Amino acid sequence: MRPKIARLGGALAASMALTLTLAACGGGDSTEPAASGGGDSPTTLKIGFMGDLTGENSAIVIPPRNGAKLAIDEYNAKNPKIKVELVPYDSQGNPDQAVPLAQQAITQDKIVALIGPAFSGESKNVGPILEQGKIPSISASATNPDLSKNGWKYWHRLVATDAAQGKAVADFLAKATSAKKAYVIDDKQEYSVGIADVAFETLKAAGATIERDKIDQDGSDYSSTVTKVKAFAPDLIFYGGYYAQAGRLLKQLRTGGVKAAFASGDGSLDQNLVSGAGADAAEGAVVGCPCFIPYGVTEGPVKTFADNYKKAYNADPAIYATEGYDAATAFLQAIEKGHTTGEAINTYLSTVDFTGVSKPVKFGPDGELGATTIHIYRVKGGQITWLGDSTVAKLD
């Protein structure tokens, strides 16, 4: 996911200016001191977490941060030889704001790994900086397909891409609703446009007559779009974007008399979609996600994770909480094996292969996962419920 359009050129210029500094901070092998404690053996290592922690879409990012912290707290509770500190970096989802935070994380805080960035726009800007600093990253939620095409060696993610997500959700909707007319809307942000593009082409290929429009991400009055949608009279509306805008849009669509089925992607998978639209307006809304939220799990490691998460945060795990936990676990496995620098940890990630609470975790040479399962969720009775993966889920 990504909330704002990245300006990669500025990030590259800033990162090139710091090449020598970052190279000095990130090099070395597994025996090189890389944390506090002095001497040749560090006693504490720092892992960063970057994403929108206080902004409009923070509800998508706080759960993976909490999941990562839970994994690290559990690790530290075992009193390991090398302890780990999680350092938060609140980018508010802004790609430009993420750049100096990444520089600070490497040159001042001397992190050895980063969980995040959470969104794709900031991932695009920060990626070159992490490459130069030789700092491995695992994003729990950045879904832009092009991120893995940059040739980055230190970049990884724990989710399927927008291409996989958009197609799976649109295929599911085409079969489940038999929609003959569809309307696709986005809010011009990179993530929004990307997933909307895929949904548009998939629904079109399925035979639907289709139209498209855009809304202003910072706007609050979507009456122009509502008028267009009502005139077109679709059976299905797909919105590419985040819950804050999705809730406002859905509320205005229903107030304007539009009764078509409403669907969106992972950016809208939060209870704030319901509160923003109102329970009545949100009823029946479908949301897809390349994430597994453990609703109703009653046994096994996922149940243990959910119980521990609720005990720690007095809340049930939400979107990308399991992915945040698994991202931290991958780094912690490297540290348990004695790898204490970015380079050594990154080398270890190429060998990682375990069953996480979210999915099997194994990275390819391009940093992508092999698993591409897309889950379908639906609002029912004012609550988000899990229907299953897109290949077996059914609407009532």
Describe the structure.
The protein has 396 residues and is an alpha/beta fold. It folds into 2 domains: 8-160 and 300-361, Rossmann fold; 163-289 and 374-389, Rossmann fold (3-Layer(aba) Sandwich). It is built from 14 helices and 14 strands. Strands 7-6-8-9-10-13-14 form a 7-stranded mixed beta sheet, with helices on both faces. Strands 2-1-3-4-5 form a 5-stranded parallel beta sheet, with helices on both faces. It has a two-stranded antiparallel ribbon with strand order 11-12. Helix 7 (190-205) links the parallel strand 6 and strand 7 (209-214). Helix 1 (8-17) runs parallel beside helix 5 and helix 3 runs parallel beside helix 13 (321-336). The longest helix has 16 residues, at 62-77. The model is unreliable at 2-39 (pLDDT under 50).
Main β-sheet, in a few words? 7 strands, mixed
- How many helical stretches? 14
How would you state the average pLDDT, rounded? 89
Structural class, from secondary structure content?
alpha/beta
At the fourth level of CATH, the homologous superfamily of the largest domain is: Response regulator
CATH architecture of the largest domain: 3-Layer(aba) Sandwich
CATH class value of the largest domain: Alpha Beta
- Shape, please? globular
Radius of gyration: 21 Å
**Secondary-structure element order, N to C:** HHEHEHEHEEHEHEHEHEHHEHHHEEEE
Major sheet: arrangement of strands:
7-6-8-9-10-13-14
Low-confidence stretches: 2-39
